[in-house]
Amino acid sequence: MSLEDLEKELYSPSGPEERRSRYRELVRKQQEAYGTMDPVSPQKEIPMSASSKKQKRQKPKIPKPPFSFLKLTIFLFGLTLIGGAATAYFYLSTSRTVEGASLIIDGPDEVLLGVPFEVRLNIANESPSALSGARIELFLPDGIQAIGALDQAIIAKELENLDAGAVTQETFQLVPLKGEKSTKELRGLFSYATAGVTSRFVQEARFVINVGEAALRLDVMSPNKVLSGEEFSLEFSFRNISSQVFRDVTLTLDYPTNYEFLSSDKKAAGENNVWKFELVSNQETNKIAIVGRAYGNEGTFFNVGARLEIAAWNKTVVIDRRSASFAIAPSPIYVNIAANGKNDYVTRLSDAIRYEIAYENNTGVALADVIIKAQLSGELFNLKTVKSKAFFESINNTLTWNGANTPGLRSLPADAGGVVYFDINTKDAYPTRRLNDKNYALKLKVIVESPTVPSLVAAEKTVAVAEAENKVAGRVEIDAKALFRDAASGILNKGPMPMKVNAPTEFTVHWIIKTHGADMRNVEVRTALEAGVEWTGTVKSNTANTVPKYDERTSEVTWRIDKLHANRGVVDEAAEAIFQVRTTPSILNIGGYVPLVKETRLIATDEFTGARPESYDIGLGSDVPDDPTVTEYERVVIE
């Protein structure tokens, strides 16, 4: 036996005792074959002495495998057993996919948005034993929902037991409601248990569906550019490209600001922006054309939104959206409106305004019989003060210039222009009736038109439209007053009245703020105490978390308020703060009064216009003219 064969026999997988027995057997065979104790290399027999023969008859010693080798072998074998046990435990204690059961999802490869479709979950028990507690779950991607459970992202169903070799199928009705021209993935799980195993097993399957176009495809036709104030058409159409019949279909249009709806070729349902269709058959097409006007400056962008909705499955679903986009083309007639020489003039109460309307013919041809109309709107226009050469119609507050009162408008040459104007005043009071009556503005809409139409222009007349808005600034008022007898404030003023020389007397100073027509922020009220007047530290206000504060170094009193809403002191309680001061008259004050505080100044920011309104009130003295309880005799200092 060769050394290689010996090693194979010796180190083949076995336990320690088995290896020892095999080793002894190999030694015995070696002795029989070669007559020697050397198991590796046989030698020729050598003559021996008697003593040697005696030694030969002794029982041969069998060498033991090295101790380190045994230890390593035992360690590796034990480690293998532990790893195998751990793996088996993890495998059996966790829900895992195993052979013996299968799950396959079947359905259409492509569907249309808004059209229901069916998916089937096919389950087969290919194992020799029954499956218990079987359950399927279908996970829906965003945009696909289950009919009858539109708000659920996971649809689950219990199957109970599934016999050996049994095959079953579960069907789900789904519908794609968003995600046009996208790919969606469905995920299914089939979980179950087998006899003799407490853990559950899971089979997973996935299915990809392509969502195509909307079943009701909405299209829009609109011009790229339109003339401000000129009539134009927009067309909205939709076609049912599916084999599905839809009921209760609604087309809704969302008009932007400064778009004026005029008419439509089909009657709207109640409002001028909603059309209803009870039944839309497969391959049916519906169209709606509307006529309107858009007003704005050159380059102003407009967007008319359109959405198509279906009422199904106990809810309203948007099936498609589109928009008609267009911009205002360069005007054939330039128009500019200025108020007191400014385009962004901020007016106020009792203000005198001159509106100037400048115009210029940009058509390249002479325009005949030009008419300019200016319509006024705004509660603070004092229409009784209108002054102009124009004809004024008070029924619709419109001024009109034409060739009769402005000869230059009879024929306006190309590149020629001019200016018309009128004067008007604003009212002297805000028409406030409710707390939210604020942010007043004056509006002027000007239309310049002529029946002359340049060649290659598809229009009935040449029209230009311009609008102007002038904000009316809000107003804020401060009222400062001093009182001696002030029980209503809850503050007791001590000292003699009339005041006596060298005897201190206390007074309360009230600051009352009223706001008109706009919210005010960063309100600040400020004054300073007169020489010899002391701050007692008694202070209060009816505004949250803010009271007047005193600076001993400068003798200034300051009250800061973050914000006051409009119409405080008009239809709501005025903002008010109270602080107490003390003064002692000298002989120089006999027969007169003692000054208490200097002039009071208020400044704020108008949130609507950004203006910085201010208000003032005169200084106050010990004569307290606002205190009706003090007599004329008590208003002067005595000895």
Structure report:
Helices cover 10% and strands 47% of the residues. The radius of gyration is 50 Å and the shape is flat. The strands form ten sheets. The protein has a five-stranded mixed β-sheet, with no helix packed on it. A five-stranded mixed β-sheet has the order 11-18-17-13-15, with no helix packed on it. It folds into five domains: 3-62, no CATH class; 101-214, Immunoglobulins (Immunoglobulin-like, Sandwich); 239-328, Immunoglobulin-like, CATH 2.60.40; 333-471, Immunoglobulin-like (Sandwich), CATH 2.60.40.10; 475-635, Immunoglobulin-like (Sandwich), CATH 2.60.40. It has 639 residues and is mainly beta. Strand 34 (549-551) and strand 35 form a beta hairpin. The chain starts with a helix and ends in an 18-residue tail after the last strand.
